[in-house]
Amino acid sequence: MARARRHDPERRERIVDAALRVVGRAGIAGLSHRTVAAEADVPLGSTTYHFASLDELLVAALRKANEGFGRQLRESPALAAPDTDPAAALARLLGEWLGGERVGVELEYELYLAALRRPALRPVAAEWTETVVAALATRTDAATARALVALMDGICLQVLLTDGTYDEEYARAMLARILVPAGGPPL
What integer is the mean pLDDT of 101-127? Predict the structure, then answer.
């Protein structure tokens, strides 16, 4: 007698969430269909049904991880207000993000940087960059927005890799240098 198939519409999402927890705890090296299935409390076949390869699972995990900072930027009333100093608003948002759950920030960067060795992740890493550039381009031009993203990535990586302390005033000053052309009025 054939078993009835269990309807579980959230299973794919639970698998992605489990992958994020596994990577957060053990890094990408600790990720396998088996470790994710155990973490999600689903049969091993469920992970391979929804994600034929680990790269497919990592793509889904990176997309989900990328939601955080981009959403913060899009939803920030301080960044949207035309009378707000965008450098100060960005520096504050960056500080809030880095000051939150460090494991989550490290996880986002680990997945983001995994694109160096896993070409399947590159389009998702590029999507994240484009999302942040689009959010910042509401206050400046696209080229300047890209420079801001590069600087913010650099600051975040330095803090994460050196166990350094985030310096909001330094970040504000450096962001302002990009936003204010030498000798020109603020953008």
Answer: 89
User: Do 156 and 95 touch, CB atoms closer than 8 A?
Assistant: no
SS (H, E, C) 110-139: HHHHHHHCCHHHHHHHHHHHHHHHHHHCCC
Backbone angles phi, psi at 101, to 5 degrees: -75, 105
Q: What would you report as the CA-atom Rg of the chain, rounded to the nearest whole angstrom?
A: 19
Placement of tokens 């088996």 in the chain:
34
Place of tokens 């504000």: 172
Please name the residues in contact with 53: beta carbons below 8 A apart, sequence gap of 6 or more.
none
Q: pTM for the complete prediction?
A: 0.82
Say how many C-beta atoms besides its own lie within 10 A of residue 51's C-beta.
Answer: 21
Distance CA 137, CA 142 (A): 5
